[in-house]
Amino acid sequence: MKTILTGIRSNSVLTLGNYLGALLPMVRLANKHSADYNINIFVPDLHSIISDIDGDLRENIVRTIKYYLAAGLEANDNVHIYRQSYVPAHSELCWILNCIATMGETSRMIQYKEKSKGQESCNVGIFDYPILMAADILLYDATYVPIGEDQFQHIELTRNLAMRFNHKFGEIFTVPAKTADQIKFMGVSDGIRIRDLLNPEKKMSKSTKAENSKILLDDDPAKAAKKIMSATTDSLAKVKFDMFNQPGVSNLLQIRALVSGTPLQEVISEWVGETRYGTLKRAVADGVAQMLKEFQDRMANISDEQVYDLLEKGEKYANEVANAKLLEAQKAFHLR
Ligand code: ATP
Ligand code: MG
């Protein structure tokens, strides 16, 4: 059985953009394939500590797992939920991979360049995390790793490390699918990018300081509605889906479609030509408020015990699989 592996960092509360663009599509993909794939959903807590954390990491982790469940993840026997740091093989394999990766290829990572830019004392974790990511993937022979475009380069690095290892020591690791095949598998031709509400030329990001730029999943629904009402639009006074010239209005249409589960084209035909932006905003605000209310009600009904039960099961499975793979890698180096 092939494996689909995914994770999302738990450094803070997620935004509506993270939910609509990453979490929800992932949950749909998992539900679609969980009869004939292993679905590994892990919380990359060791990746969290390379940067700042809002709040308490342990609480954030429990909340993230609840997000998946509240988004509709059907947890059956093929779905494995685990915390990275509870499976020590990740760190162990990372070290072994460090010793076959080169400074040249690791220094070329765009994420590293961006994240370390302007930081006088960038921590080594920021440099090394793509190798840890390779270990996260290779330990489970994962074929598909649905992630955002900013991580594609790391998939290529993982593929190269796996091929190098296999070439030297025999077929130990499954080489994950090429980026193009990952995209095909995810079924997204053009990734969804929810825009910043105040500066719609940019995407919505959880690290943006301005409160009214982003909607957080734990925002009070009425407060979230107000943020939509105060979103930046334009002075053309005619609704049209045109991300380039009318990004604010187009973003509202996009959000309206996603929160109501209506195809974007349908929402566009309903609103195109409307001259009162306030009417569109009201409809979007109501849709967002309703979605958030339902989501938050589902969150409230998931207990911590439920999460810990899933983790206990998932971590037992993950340790078995990962330790077996690690042993093969250790034998290759005559460590065992
Ligand atoms: P940060 O500001 O810390 O970079 P972020 O909001 O950009 O936070 P990430 O942690 O970088 O979030 O990404 C988590 C996931 O959410 C990724 O899969 C990413 O592609 C997706 N994502 C992030 N922002 C958006 C957005 N505005 N619309 C759709 N998907 C998004
Ligand atoms: Mg980001």
Notes on the structure:
There is one protein chain. This protein is α/β, with parallel strands linked by helices and 336 residues long. The protein has two domains: 2-187 and 303-332, Rossmann fold; 211-299, Tyrosyl-Transfer RNA Synthetase. It has 14 helices and four strands. Strands 3-2-1-4 form a four-stranded parallel sheet. Strand 1 (2-7), helix 1 (16-33) and strand 2 form a beta-alpha-beta unit. Helix 4 packs across helix 7 (124-138), helix 4 (89-98) runs parallel beside helix 14 and helix 10 runs antiparallel to helix 13 (277-300). The two termini are 28 Å apart. The mean pLDDT is 95. Bound molecules: adenosine-5'-triphosphate and magnesium ion.
Q: What's a quick, concise take on this entry?
A:
The protein is α/β, with parallel strands linked by helices. The chain has helices at 16-33, 45-48, 57-70, 89-98, 103-107, 110-116, 124-138, 152-169, 179-186, 221-229, 247-260, 264-271, 277-300, 304-332, and strands spanning 2-7, 37-43, 79-83, 142-144. It has two domains: 2-187 and 303-332, 3-Layer(aba) Sandwich (Rossmann fold), CATH 3.40.50.620; 211-299, Tyrosyl-Transfer RNA Synthetase (Orthogonal Bundle), CATH 1.10.240.
Defining key terms:
single chain; 336 residues; alpha/beta; Rossmann fold; Tyrosyl-Transfer RNA Synthetase; four-stranded parallel beta sheet; 14 helices; 4 strands; 6% strand; globular; binds adenosine-5'-triphosphate; binds magnesium ion
List the helices and strands and how they pair.
Elements lengths: L1 E6 L8 H18 L3 E7 L1 H4 L8 H14 L8 E5 L5 H10 L4 H5 L2 H7 L7 H15 L3 E3 L7 H18 L9 H8 L34 H9 L17 H14 L3 H8 L5 H24 L3 H29 L4
Parallel strand pairs: 1-2, 1-4, 2-3
Helix pairs in contact: 3-13, 4-7, 4-14, 7-8, 10-13, 11-12, 11-13
